[in-house]
Sequence to fold (761 residues):
Amino acid sequence: MLRLRAKHRTEMRYAGEVRESVNEIRLCPRGNGRQQVELCEIVTDPPTEVHRHVDAFGNEVAWFQIERPHTGLIVDAHAVVTVTPHPPMPQKAPWGLLLDRALQDRMSDYLAPSALVHWPESVDYFAQGLEVDDIQDVGVWLRAMERAVNDSIRYERGSTGVDTTVERLIQVRRGVCQDMAHLFLALCRRRGVPARYVSGWLFQPGRDEPGESHAWCDAWVPGAGWVEFDPTHPDPNLDHYIRIGVGRDYFDVPPFRGTYVGAPTEKMSVTVEIADIGLPTTAG
Amino acid sequence: MRVNTLFEDYRVAGFYDEMFEEPAAPRGPYRGLYAGLASLRPDTFARKSELAGACYLNEGITFALHGREHPFPFDLLPRLVSTEDWSTLEAGLGQRVRALDQFLADVYGPRKCVEDGVIPYRLLASCNGYMREMVGVTPPNGRWVQFAGIDLIRDDRGAWRVLEDNLRTPSGLSYVVQNRSFMRRVFPEAFRGHDVVSVDHAPLMLRQALAYAAPEHVRDPRIVVLTPGSFNSAYYEHTFLAQQMGVPLVEGRDLVVRNRRVYVKTTTGYDPVDVIYRRIDDWYLDPVSLRPDSLLGVPGLMGAYRAGNVGISNAPGTGIADDKAVYVYLPALIRYFLGEEPILDQVRTHLLEDERDREHVLANLDSLVVKAVDGAGGYGILIGPHATPEERRVFARRIEQNPRGYIAQETVSLSRAPVFLDGRFRARHIDLRPFITYGAEPNVVPGGLTRVALQDGSLVVNSSQGGGSKDTWVLAR
Fold:
């Protein structure tokens, strides 16, 4: 169990004056079985009132508007979360359990193709080439897939964009965490395993950059429920993963969306600093 | 020679004819009209028809077809609806709109209808009109629908049936008002001896219903009509309704969100807006929260809407009711939400996702009508009995690739009515789009848009497919 403090900063610098800035951001961690959110604050500079709501996927969304002229914008998300280990994978998870009609109906969002996740023939060929399709257990199959995606795609920053589809990815075979997540989702949904996109932050103790934005996946394992998989770092140490939001693919959980009127954006930078701050001592 | 001679070779047999029980024997509501026509010379009727066409051209009432503006073909012989029929339709349409409104509130709220197994979530989640951005949002007064256009047809026995529901941006109300006004101008003597219910107040009915979309505390709501602009095929209607309701016609760039309130920019400053009667598609309303590439919308509109500071009518997300696969569930939804039996029948419809249903449909394509679930304007339709084997093969392939994208319906022999074409009356298929406003209670605009398939034998009445229209008279007694 770890107690982590994250400071996420988005900084925009414009080439001149801008105004009428309206933004929707998804930068607050949400609670779930293995993550308790103690605190999450969103602060902007120039300061403004931030309005929050929960979206259809249960994610925390913050909305704010800055009408007056400004030349830069800083959005800080400050969160404290406690992460606990994931429940273990069940001994057995046969494929047949995924055929339950009530489960399939409830999971429709995560079984159907979505804007960035679909599986045309080229994905079929790719999947058949992995030679893991005959594994009899869903949990084992998922771990094998997680590894197979990692083996097939070379991690390369800047090789893809936010709107790169799975089809394109398996042509170029290079991408970032988001692309690997999308491919993993396509492979799961193709076999009828409900799977969703997870956006969040990764704690990297001992590294120069103590944290980074990251994307991974939840897949539904019969008997266990949602289990996390990370094709970028197979068999992940989930103590280091802070979950922000889930969706059908990246488009459901973009960290930052907005429009404004005025000069072009000169520079945008995103940093996240994560520190292990230890569990609070309880008065006893 | 009198006008009635123009009916001499008019064929009644084979379909339900709106006007005639048999040749020269008009049905009850049409007797007065038929007798009146006897006092008119054929060339007078022809001249009046031309005059009516000129009215449309002069008013600039056109629609875009294949990239060109055309006047809306208007047939001078009105379509009559008896008092008894109308009271059934009023009750049935009102019932349907109440059920649709409750259904939408439930889908985007507690979703009990899914939990109770009335409709599968899978079906809703796969509707193009389903907006996840609306989940958990409660529109002002908890009301989703203020205005609906529900298409009706009559089958070979003359029984009325619902063909489809249009909630997103139903269009055609301006034609209802204008058809009547031109009719009075060009053919006033036709009204003699008839007690026709007026439709002049239709825009006022709409305005009163739109007030129900305003935030609860607002007494005298300020309404605007939001149009995509003059390139839209229904732009004429947007200008007409704004003018008739006495409210501003605006484009997205005329509106601005400040402190989660919506304002319209005017020459003197910013005027607050309480209700947006939007004639643009859901996804284009706000580039921040919806489609980022939208240039038609208002940045921040969804923020103001979620805060309850502005009404949008109909509410975003109502488009799921337009999905022809959802239509299949309407009778069950009426029973579920209202505890009432559906008053109006609909057309027997097959969903195609289940393999057995699909196989049955594919084996019987030559007798069925196949429609794209989100098709509008008469596009994406296969009329099996009229189609070539090649056309049926194309649709069979489309169905197999995307079974959720299509539904199949029994082919209904649409009723026919006399239409004046090339100096003669000829029987053509028609339908009816009545408009329902939902303020305190559902109200049906007494009349509606009777659409006419101008081509012989055609079952497609949409104006975008070269259809015309008739004035629709609801008789008060």
